[in-house]
Design a protein that fits this description.
This protein is α/β, with parallel strands linked by helices and 263 residues long. It has one domain: Class I glutamine amidotransferase (GATase) domain (Rossmann fold, 3-Layer(aba) Sandwich). The protein contains 9 helices and 13 strands. A 7-stranded mixed sheet has the order 2-1-3-4-13-12-10. The protein binds glutamine. It catalyses: aldehydo-D-ribose 5-phosphate + D-glyceraldehyde 3-phosphate + L-glutamine = pyridoxal 5'-phosphate + L-glutamate + phosphate + 3 H2O + H(+); L-glutamine + H2O = L-glutamate + NH4(+). Belongs to the glutaminase PdxT/SNO family. InterPro entries: Class_I_gatase-like, PdxT/SNO, PdxT/SNO_CS.
Length: 263
């Protein structure tokens, strides 16, 4: 019998259940991953939001860091949201250090530089609508279009927009994105596609501009008033925000299509 697509959710810390629901709403099977043996059984993995320093430590305590890095470099599709984006990044601009002065580590694989808690105190948590052009081509499944499973409060806002949209038009509805002490992406490698960006107030953008890093053809420093908040490269997808908390399903749907080689 055809085995259903199985997506693991790294379940060491963070919003595991919400991702599992989103994956199941897209018609795939979701399983928790805490051990290397469980990782071996999945086709793809989600690294959820939470606290990247804690998840980093726990992957090493649970002897998962090595197997995770191996599977990522062997081509396993991975979607990281928020802390998960940090864990996928090859570089952190401002890594936290522990009491012994050791900098936090990442699993890596995605040729980006992220800045943690980048949006600053006043906007540590905020919501905004994002243009997400890649979703305009998506053929959305009925399961996704019909899903109303999560967060009644958030859906109360989203529902009128969704109700107005026809099945064909819904993919051009902007992504309502929730940012919770979120990172942003301030450098992308040549293989990395920016899927969505936020516009910063000029004052917020200023300190990170003109850091003197030379531009070359391999890498691009993101300057000015925009910062990338959704990126992908080959089998890896990352968002600064949390689509799993708003009932938004199109990002998980995109990930499933990436796993299937359809996007
Ligand atoms: N919501 C989140 O995942 C927050 C990420 C957190 N600021 C970190 O550095 O890990």
């Amino acid at each position: 019998m055809h085995r259903p697509l199985t997506v693991g959710i790294l379940a060491l810390q963070g919003d595991v259940r919400e991702h599992a629901r989103a994956i199941e709403a897209c018609g795939a099977r979701a399983v928790s991953v805490r051990r290397a043996a469980e990782l071996a059984d999945v086709d793809a993995l989600i690294l959820p939001g939470g606290e990247s320093t804690t998840i980093d430590k726990l992957t090493r305590i649970f002897s998962l860091a090595g197997p995770l890095k191996e599977r990522i470099s062997a081509g396993m599709p991975v979607y990281g949201s928020c802390a998960g984006m940090i864990l996928l990044a090859d570089e952190i601009a401002d890594p936290a250090t522990d009491r012994d002065g050791n900098a936090q580590q990442t699993l890596g694989g995605l040729d980006i530089t992220v800045r943690r808690n980048a949006f600053g105190r006043q906007r540590e948590s905020f919501e905004t609508d994002l243009d997400f052009a890649v979703l305009n081509d998506a053929v959305l499944s009925t399961a996704v279009l019909n899903d109303r499973a999560l967060s009644p409060a958030a859906l109360a806002n989203a529902a009128p927009v969704e109700a107005k949209a026809s099945n064909h038009a819904r993919s051009s509805v902007p992504v309502h994105a929730v940012f919770i002490r979120a990172p942003w992406v301030e450098r992308v490698g040549a293989s990395v596609e920016v899927l969505a960006s936020v516009q910063l107030p000029a004052a917020a953008a200023a300190p990170d501009n003109g850091s003197g890093q030379p531009e070359n053809t391999r890498t691009a420093r993101i300057e000015g008033n925009t910062r990338a908040v959704a990126v992908r490269s080959r089998h890896l997808l990352a968002t600064s925000f949390h689509p799993e908390v708003t009932g938004e399903r199109r990002i998980h749907e995109l990930f499933i299509r990436m796993i299937r080689g359809e996007a």
